[in-house]
Amino acid sequence: MAVIETMNLTKKFGGFTALSGVNLKLNEGEIYGFIGPNGAGKSTTIRILLGILKATEGSVKIFGKDAWTEAVEVHKRIAYVPGDVNLWPNLTGGEVIDLFGSLRGGIDNRKRDELMKRFELDPSKKCRTYSKGNRQKVALVAAFSANAELYILDEPTSGLDPLMEQVFQECIREVKDAGKSVLLSSHILSEVEKLCDRVGIIRQGKIIETGTLNELRHLTRTNLVVETKKPITNLLSLPGVHEIEGNGHAASFQVDSEQLDSVVKHISQFGVVKLESAPPTLEDLFMQHYEGAGIPEVEVGGISE
Amino acid sequence: MISILYNKTGRLTRFILRRDRLRLPIWILGIAFFTFIIPGAFLELYPSQQERDIMAGTMKNPAMIAIAGPADFDHYTIGVMTAHQMLIFTAIVVGLMSILLVTRHTRADEEDGRIELIRSLPVGRLSTLNATIMVYVITYILLALIVGLGLFTLDIEGMDLEGSMLYGAVLGSTGVFFTGLTALFAQVSQSSRGTIGLSISVLIIAYILRAVGDVSNEKISWFSPLGLVTQTEVYSSNNWWPVLALCVASILLIVAAYYLNTIRDMGEGFLPSRPGRKHASIFLQSPIGLILRLQRTGLISWALGMFVMGVSYGSILGDLEAFFDGSQELQKMLVTEEGYSLIEQFLPMLMMVMAILAAIPAIMSINKLYGEEKKQRIEHVLGRAVSRTSLMRSYLVIASINGCVMLSLAAVGLWLAGSLVVTDGLEFSLVYGAAITYFPATLVMIGLATALIGWLPKKTSVIWIYISYSFFVLYLGKLFQFPEWVGKLSPFGFIPQVPMEEMDWLTTILLIVMAVIFSIIGMMGYSRRDIQG
């Protein structure tokens, strides 16, 4: 069953098109990585999912319910962490967490105390004294101690240190083990790569690529590093070989996935001493899309966050 | 040794002047401007000494002395009158100016990490504090001279050179005193809010101590910086010793601030920062609880303010006859009618003023809904199981109760003070009835503000223009004899002037219906539009 399903979602701010025809589907129990540069429309999409912004066109369903008209019903089953966590300066972190819990309809107090320990959050401090990372912890503790079915997280780790990021990743895995669904917007690609089952890449208000990491990798190149006894010749003339570096006996290059077979056959003639192959990282994928290779410029731009 | 403490003070002084190049002139010119227009206004309102003596009579009661302080009531010249009614309040404004500006350059800069940047440069440890003090001492010397010479050049009878210079010197020395006090608290407290809070508390305590002292025992007033202000008796006996006392106290405070600054670590204070609650109380579990908590401080301060305003209006009721006989201007503003006592005639106008003022905190309260939205905090609430209509309804309920409480407190204050000074006593139902009749108009204002938030959120401030219009037209309208429809453009213009007029239930109900309709329109817009941020 689809937990989130948007069909042809379009959002205009006056004459400016922030999202055009976004189709996004998140299945139950899945962790969906939503990636894209600043201003691509990630936050706008998420705010529409939350019923804070109203879609100009298209349908947005969460748990099969309309995200706008049935927002309250939907919100009882989700937990949300915004990208910029702005809190009330004169309330303490602990007060905010409890308030969020009761506005949502109850939280698990034992879970809350445990999470505050794991995230090393001092709940007795006023929000005014919290750093960005600490404000994010407040929102994360409130979200993960809620017994939600869907977690919508908008760049939740941008202010966390590496140790806390580790804790965050553990929390996501626990949530996944419990069969919950997660929409994780991020531009920390290593994080998305580690956690997500499927990825959607958004650029200038359009989803330009979506699928599992494996599916996406298929569309792209594998990194190869080889050392041979005899110098390799004619490498450049082979189809599907890119970014060659090195000389004669040692070389590193990228190969289009569909040409891998013929390239490996070719280099084996020179007596392979060492062969390393690495799948493309998400970063490679991302850069490939964002350098604009093969993607026509569309008539929309990002919004400022 | 000197350079490790004070290196580059001069450069930092120029830097502070650069940062305050608009703030300082605005404060100084604002204070000077209001000081200069008042004596002229008094001269116009009370042209003869006879009228001024009547005014002196009205001011010569414990309630007014508690508010404004003692004065030479036997020689109530324009000068004495100005000093009596203006000096203490101007001194409070000067005190506030010191508190806000000095905090800005000391603890606030430290809290935001800007002083750390400066200190990493070859700058002395005390240089920022030293530069701040220098700037404000010079500022207040300037203020003293401008006000002193300015008042003298007004060339009004009873305002001689010595008195005028003393008037300026009192304001200047008060400013320096609060500069020193704030500098000291900036060392003691760890946050800029704490610094401002402590300093303002002293300002309030100083005022209360002075009020108590002036009414009961003068010696108590000597311990209050504001008490010293009223002890100067400007334009009559011209005492200079309180100015001297303020200067000596200022030096002590500044020395103490310097000392504490040298013995503490940067970023630290001397008061322990108190840990807050670890969990939300039962109270803070709903949108209503959250709204009340966020508006608590404002609510209490406004409530106190409304009550004090009621008390001060009430305290003049006893001398009303004398007051009105003395001023033709005021007589014009009354609905003169036979068969009613002067108090009954005066009440509706008082109530109208109080009702419009009491609507201000209520509108501020409802406008917070949009304020929270702009600060991107409303999405925490709407992103959970709270609908937009129920959130807006909570704000409406709070704002309406706010308006009712403010109006009631003003009325209760007026009645309490009034029943003490009016010889035959004052009936509570008369006063309260006249006040609460205005409540439907407040509701209409709240409803309009709601409609703006729902449909034109960026134009929410339009409501303030409407409030100012209502005040201007209804308060001064009678004086200028505007046509009646001008007043009817404001909901406050429809309210029957109880007890002078009959209670008009139809209008009252219609106003309430209008308020409800505006609120519903607002909710419809609010649940239809995008949340900004």
Describe this structure in words.
- The complex is a heterodimer of chains A (305) and B (533).
- Chain A contains 10 helices and 14 strands.
- Chain A is of the alpha/beta class and 305 residues long.
- In chain A, a hairpin with a 2-residue loop joins strand 12 and strand 13 (250-256).
- In chain A, helix 3 packs parallel to helix 5 (132-144) and helix 4 packs antiparallel against helix 5.
- In chain B, helix 2 packs across helix 9 and helix 22 runs parallel beside helix 25.
- Chain B is mainly alpha-helical and 533 residues long.
- Chain B has helices at 2-6, 9-19, 23-45, 49-59, 62-68, 78-105, 107-111, 114-119, 127-153, 161-188, 192-215, 218-221, 225-231, 241-263, 287-315, 320-326, 328-332, 342-374, 378-382, 388-421, 428-436, 439-455, 462-480, 484-488, 505-526.
- The longest helix of chain B is centred in the C-terminal third of the chain and has 34 residues, at 388-421.
- Chain B folds into 2 domains: 2-263, no CATH class; 297-526, no CATH class.
- Chains A and B meet through helix 2 and helix 3 of A and helix 15 and helix 19 of B.
Strand content of chain A: 25-35%
Global mean pLDDT of chain A: 87
The assigned CATH architecture of the largest domain in chain A is: 3-Layer(aba) Sandwich
Can you write the helix and strand succession of chain A as a string? EEEHEEHEHHHEHEHEEHEEEHEH
Give the strand order, joined by hyphens, for the main sheet of chain A. 6-7-8-3-9-10
Average residue pLDDT of chain B: 90
Q: Give the helix level of chain B as a range of percent.
A: over 70%
Structural class by SSE content of chain A? alpha/beta
Q: Give the helix/strand class of chain B.
A: mainly alpha
Quantity of strands of chain B, as a count: 0
Low-pLDDT stretches of chain B are: none
* Morphology call of chain A: elongated
> Radius of gyration of chain A over alpha carbons?
23 Å
Note the beta-strand portion of chain B: under 5%
CATH superfamily of the largest domain in chain A: P-loop containing nucleotide triphosphate hydrolases
* Largest sheet: number of strands, sense, barrel closure of chain B: none
| Uncertain stretches of chain A | 293-305
